[in-house]
Write a structure and sequence with these properties.
The complex is a heterodimer of chains A (215) and B (180). With 215 residues, chain A is of the alpha+beta class. Helix content of chain A is 32%, strand content 20%. Chain A has a six-stranded antiparallel β-sheet, with helices on one face. Chain A has a three-stranded antiparallel β-sheet with strand order 7-6-9, with no helix packed on it. A two-stranded antiparallel ribbon of chain A has the order 4-11. Helices cover 69% and strands 0% of the residues of chain B. Chain B is globular. The termini of chain B are far apart. The model of chain B has no long low-confidence stretch (mean pLDDT 86). The chains are: A alpha+beta (215), B mainly alpha (180).
Chain lengths: 215, 180
């Protein structure tokens, strides 16, 4: 997998600092699972956190703090369940599988018209995460954004006015970008998308459909 | 902090992992618990919540000692990730999906040099942070202590992240090589 479109430094830093809405965190965690370069960049942002905690000053601990901690240790179960490693041939990396409850075949799709299907994933309220299934050669309705939209390709590829996005690539779309992503011929395109505000469609019919799409 | 002491933190953590060494844990506790608590206080936790969470973070450090890998993070960095996750849980009541785990793990001798270089780079990062102009440093602190929303965070840190990143990248490449 050759990844050409990566996460921005500010997204990686916000994820490292723990400031991203859950839906964006899911896109970041999924991309990092596929991209060693972004993983290395993320770990270097974690190192800033380490330097800050080393330097954060010291708060006075309670008198019995150490004993209380040792009591917590004996009270906790010893083994931490480790998440199953990547299953060869699976389309979804582990963080996405956690949200779907399985791989691609277990997604409960809903049609949103023009052959496009989606599945909303359950996250907290700051932003929305959804899986999109776009048939090969099909366009997603022209839309703009009020906030930020992250789109991570998991299978197939799409093109828009910006570039081509293939497996592992992530597109970071801001308010300015009005685009019509078109899935390439060949394989159907599967994407994970996160938005922090409802999308704004530029044609009448999709706009009417918006409340039903929940996008 | 000198590189010797950072090496010592890693060595103490390995003693916790291998021997359930309470003495080693007590030394880690004395150094890190007050810092974790200060981090949580600065992130908006009140006194009792910060105390409780700091204890929980220290307990997690004990239980997850087997997952610490000195090639990918200093002890302080690893402690930060645990404290941050606890803060997201306790203060934001939110979840933070984690990337797929790679089969990292403490390995025999040859990799010790990698670990040492990474610890040195972490120390240099700390020194560079201390030398930043106050305004820039304060922006970074506010980002990590949770005062800035994600759209307000700008990643122009002025910190030399390139070297630490390429160190980690190198370790990743070796790991991928071993896996293939």
């Amino acid at each position: 997998m050759t990844i050409r479109h990566h996460l921005s430094d500010s997204l990686l830093m916000a994820y490292s600092a723990g400031q991203l809405p859950e839906a964006f965190s899911l896109v970041v965690a999924t991309h990092v699972s596929l991209c060693d370069d972004c993983r290395a960049r993320l770990l270097s942002f974690d190192a800033i956190g380490g330097a800050l905690i080393e330097d954060a000053g010291q708060a006075r601990m309670a008198e019995d703090s150490f004993e209380a901690t040792m009591a917590r240790i004996t009270g906790l179960p010893q083994a931490q369940p480790v998440r199953a490693p990547r299953i060869p041939g699976s389309v979804f990396p582990a963080p996405l599988r956690d949200y779907v409850g399985g791989d691609l075949s277990t997604v409960k799709w809903r049609s949103v018209g023009m052959g496009v299907r989606q599945a909303i994933l359950k996250t907290d309220q700051g932003a929305t995460a959804r899986l999109l299934h776009i048939p090969a050669g099909q366009a997603v309705p022209d839309h703009g954004h009020r906030g930020m939209e992250l789109t991570l390709v998991l299978q197939g590829a799409f093109r828009d006015t910006e570039d081509r996005f293939g497996p592992g690539d992530v597109e970071i779309a801001t308010e300015e970008l009005e685009h019509t992503p078109v899935a390439e011929q060949g394989a159907d395109c599967i994407c994970l998308a996160a938005t922090d505000a409802p999308l704004r469609f530029n044609r009448l019919i999709p706009r009417i459909a918006q409340p039903f799409l929940r996008i | 902090m000198t590189s010797e002491t950072e090496q010592d933190w890693a060595a103490l953590l390995l003693r916790v992992r291998d021997d359930a060494d309470k003495g080693a844990f007590a030394l880690l506790f004395r150094h890190f618990a007050p810092r974790i608590k200060a981090f949580l206080r600065k992130s908006g936790a009140n006194e009792p919540l910060a105390e409780e969470c700091a204890q929980e973070v220290m307990a997690t450090i004990w239980h997850k000692a087997h997952m610490f890998d000195p090639k990918r993070a200093s002890v302080a960095t690893w402690v930060f990730t645990i404290a941050r996750n606890r803060r997201i849980d306790a203060l934001r009541k939110s979840r933070r999906p984690e990337p797929e785990e790679l089969p990292w793990g403490p390995e025999p001798e040859p990799d010790q040099a990698d670990a040492m270089v990474l610890q040195q780079e972490s120390r240099r990062l700390g020194e560079a942070l201390a030398q930043l102009p106050e305004k820039q440093r304060s922006l970074i602190e506010r980002a990590y202590f949770g005062d800035l929303s994600h759209s307000e965070i700008a990643a122009e840190t002025g910190l030399p992240l390139g070297t630490i990143k390429s160190r980690i990248r190198l370790a990743l490449e070796r790991l991928r090589h071993q896996m293939s």
